[in-house]
Design goal:
single chain; about 475 residues; alpha+beta; Uridine Diphospho-n-acetylenolpyruvylglucosamine Reductase, domain 2; Uridine Diphospho-n-acetylenolpyruvylglucosamine Reductase, domain 3; Alpha-Beta Plaits; 4 domains; 17 helices; 19 strands; about 35% helix; about 20% strand; globular; binds flavin-adenine dinucleotide; binds D-malate; binds zinc ion
């Protein structure tokens, strides 16, 4: 290690103490992304500050020494956004030790949580106080408040509560020069010039470091009803969504689509996964209704709408959860989708969105195009149909080498994106850009939009030390 590295590490060790600085093999879990796409990650050190002040001091020291920094929360990024490159020059800064819920207020319906609070913990703390923090996604046991805000995560309940951005009222952050910005305002209305808080949300750690957030809470549901339905085709799934939305939009907490391709990988590969229907089908939807209104009669609503849709030939079969355990079992089938694909070999993810009305066309056209591109490949579309975000993923052909398949990743993404572009959609709905999709930014966001992003980056982080190589080409 050269003298400059030794001196910056000494400085950082003085700021965070011995338990706050990791090196050698202790760094391993911080260097590889969840999908294992980049196993070449190397870092000068992993830093785990315990407070906003410590983090600010560390950032100032790194800026003075010209050391690039990679913010990391739960490291569940689907686009390799939270891991360092192979240079060994970057420092990973983890929020693991900044994990306090600072305050909760059930009159204002707000919670102030530090960046390292695990999403599931935030949900539990809110529930114990008699309120709901509604953001929900498969990685909620590991993903953090700082991470979900930095990626503007969506997940299962966007259709009802919006993305992470809509659940955020204010932020505290360490800016790229190390200054602490306290914007933890808990206001529903705050029009005071450019909204810095909204710039940091979705910036994937390229414009500063979120250290805490003021979050919105909601009333806890008094009634919940969940069903898994086998449906005729993609159009029938969409029509069923419309039936529920037209009957009681406020009751639809989640509406998730799962193709046979994706559901059957879960049933075939995830231990203990069982289908609560008489037989396998070509398409499935999970309907989740919830209401805080007493006497909402959601069970009756679920039965009525499913019966109407059955009569119309759209729904072929349905299982209605009779207990909390059955609700959880149906949800587990959906949440194991990423794991099912991981267990079934290599897969390429296409996290795309289109206007809700175009979802069936997008799924059909993309699936056909993918099969033609790579014969024998298995399209596994599934996801958040109610908000137009489908994971148009592709599993490798059974007889193809995984590495050879992954080498085609960009062809596969381009193939889906072509259809998505024609339908007025986006190439990145909820996972972000990270390291994987930077080369798509020019063609999708080039011109005024990308120029403004680059100017903002330059203004806030002139040395380019915050998460370099991510988001911007
Ligand atoms: P990390 O992965 O650690 O980081 C994500 C990005 O944010 C990186 O660019 C990192 O540098 C930056 N960052 C992290 N913390 C901070 C901070 N405090 N300040 C500034 N920048 C920071 N995503 C969805 O949107 N919807 C889903 O339904 C969904 N399902 C998933 C299911 C599974 C099984 C998995 C593994 C992932 C899923 N994801 C989903 C993706 C992932 O969980 C989200 O992107 C999540 O928001 C990342 O949180 P994290 O704490 O793990 O962040
Ligand atoms: C999910 O919704 O389960 C993830 O965001 C999708 C994925 O793994 O592609
Ligand atoms: Zn998703």
């Amino acid at each position: 290690m050269n003298a400059i590295n030794t001196s910056i590490l000494d400085t950082l060790a003085r700021i965070v103490g011995p338990s706050g600085l990791l090196g050698g093999s202790d760094m391993a879990p911080y260097l590889t992304d969840w999908r294992n796409l980049y196993s070449d990650g190397a870092a000068l050190a992993v830093l785990r500050p315990a407070s906003t002040q410590e983090l600010s001091d560390c950032v100032k020291a790194c800026v003075a020494a010209g050391v690039p920094m990679v913010p990391q929360g739960g490291n569940t990024s689907m686009v390799a956004g939270a891991t360092p490159d192979a240079s060994g020059r970057q420092i990973v800064i983890s929020t693991q030790r900044m994990n306090r819920v600072r305050a909760i207020d059930t009159m204002d319906m707000t919670m102030v949580a530090e960046a390292g609070v695990i999403l599931k913990t935030a949900q539990d703390v809110a529930r114990e106080a008699g309120a709901l923090f509604p953001l929900s996604l498969g990685a909620e046991g590991s993903a953090t408040i700082g991470g979900v805000l930095s990626t503007n995560a969506g997940g299962n309940t966007t259709v009802r509560y919006g993305n992470a951005r809509e659940l955020m009222l204010g932020l505290e952050a360490v800016m790229p020069d190390g200054t602490i910005w306290n914007g933890l305002r808990r206001l529903r209305k705050d029009n005071t010039g450019y909204a810095l808080r909204h710039l940091l949300v979705g910036a994937e750690g390229t414009l500063g470091f979120i250290t805490a957030a003021a979050l919105r809470l909601f009333p806890l549901p008094r009634e919940e009803a969940v069903a898994l339905a086998a449906v005729r085709d993609e159009e029938a799934a969409l029509s069923l969504f419309r039936r529920f939305r037209d009957r009681d939009e406020s009751a639809v907490r989640a509406f998730e689509y799962m193709s046979a391709g994706s559901m059957h990988l879960v049933l075939d590969h995830v231990p203990g996964a069982t289908l609560p229907l008489a037989q396998r089908a070509g398409h499935y939807v999970l309907i989740d209704l919830a209401s805080s209104r007493p006497g909402a009669e959601l069970r009756a609503l679920l039965e009525e709408v499913l019966a109407e849709a059955m009569e119309a030939g759209e729904v072929l079969d349905a299982a209605l959860a009779e207990s909390g355990a059955q609700r959880a079992a149906i949800w587990r089938l959906r949440e194991e989708h990423p794991e099912g694909q991981k267990l079934a070999g290599a897969s390429v993810k296409n996290d795309v969105s289109v206007p809700v009305s175009k979802v069936p066309e997008m799924i059909r056209r993309s699936s056909d195009a993918l099969r033609a591109l790579i014969p024998g490949s298995r399209p596994v579309p599934f996801g958040h149909m109610g908000d137009g975000n489908i994971h148009m993923n592709l599993a490798q052909p059974l007889d193809m080498d995984a590495k050879a398949f992954l080498e085609r990743s960009h062809d596969i993404m381009d193939c889906v994106n072509e259809v998505v572009r024609e339908l007025g959609g986006s190439f990145s709905a909820e996972h972000g850009i990270g390291r994987i999709k930077t080369d798509m930014m020019e063609s999708w966001r080039g011109g005024a939009e990308l120029a403004a992003m680059q100017a903002i980056k330059k203004a806030l982080d002139p040395k380019g030390l915050f998460n370099p190589g991510k988001v911007l080409p």
